[in-house]
Prior knowledge:
Shape: globular
Keywords: Membrane, Transferase, Transmembrane, Transmembrane helix
Strand order of the largest sheet: 1-2
Largest sheet: 2 strands, antiparallel
Family: Belongs to the wax synthase family.
Radius of gyration: 23 Å
Transmembrane segments: 29-47, 54-71, 149-168, 291-308, 359-377, 404-423
Distance between the termini: 41 Å
Region (Disordered): 86-106
Mean pLDDT: 91
Order of helices and strands: HHHHEEHHHHHHHHHHH
Number of strands: 2
Subcellular location: Membrane
Low-confidence stretches: 97-103
Amino acid sequence: MHPILCLVGEVIVTTLVTGFTHPGARLRLLGLIPVALCVLQCVPLCMKSMVRTPWAALVGGYSITYLFHYLDVAVLSDWSFEHNSPVSGLVRPSEDANTDDRAQSRKPNDTIVHRLLFGVKMASSFRFVGTPYQTRNTPPVIAADRKYFLQRTFAVIVVSYVVLDFINSNNDPMIASKYLTLEKVPFLTRLDQITAEEVVIRAFAVLAAAVGLNCVQGGIYNIFALLAVSTGVSNPSEWPPFYGSPRDAYTLRKFWNVFWHQTNARKFSSIAHYTVHGCMKLPRGSIGARYLRMLVAFLSSGIMHLLGDLAAGVQLRDSGAMRFFLAQALGMIIEDVAIRAYRRLPPGTKIPLVAEKGLGFLWVAIFLTWSVPAYMYPMMWRANQGLNDSTIPFSFFGPGAERIKAVGCLLSAGVVSLSGILIT
């Protein structure tokens, strides 16, 4: 079976099970079996079927994400059609949920169509936007007007495509094979060998990876947003920005909890709360429970991305996913200790707020430059061989025929956007 069909199968199972079964029903737990089987079928075939590592990683990554998503909405959080909300107690309403939001919990009409729509909502809602259970730190909606939303979304898609094309066209296989390999991942143990050139290349590689990932994930998100809003399936208010503001990324905690996308936050939070408070029976509110939840969340993320690495053709022994995500937990603990110690200093010894944030950005940049290669370098095995491994199918910097196809890709998105504007 093709990996994409496996992914579609997971979406269908999630839709039907959450829409047509009661919370706590045995069928919900049994539903994990076909979803897990789809993942087991999908991951080994991704690289063979999708050819390029970014494409394989995307399909395999979303397949694994849906396994975690199903575990959350159908088993752990136990979303209920009757209550239009989770009933397990793991998920609590957001503190800023207003009365209108809470009104969504009223019992809906019990029809096949309504249950199917609820199941689709559960299968497609990662941040639960517009509900009392919206993921914390979801960015506010920027474009509420439909016409402006379509114009802005189309512009973001174009910019994302062009930036990805520019990054890929400037890849140098010789530099990559010399500096961006598994042997270059360790840093602190090679201080006597590292040159200034390697540090600069490492830093720019990490920056390019972050920008590229932002464009890939944000670009795909905006393509779906463009299609959904232009066809009238959903409203602009249901599509807040995928990422937060980079101005908030001056601590590791804010980098991951505010700036970075929060599409997996609910899944990892549910798993962490269930593990720490449900299985270990640790009381809420203690520092130990808080840090243990953080560790479980990053461990879950590491497992998810490790499987994604396997889908992209990375060998298990080469994957640095677990090392990278557990390093983020360690970095946050170090950061918390440093911030607490700084706050205890006398007021006269503290530096201005602007300088504090400047040091914070520097700390985040240094930490990510040190830690990201463990996850990123193994994924570059095809690029290091000089093979075409771009996320985008056609390049503006390629031959004439390929440029025409690249223009055609963007024009297609433009036609969808324009049709939505004209309908308005």
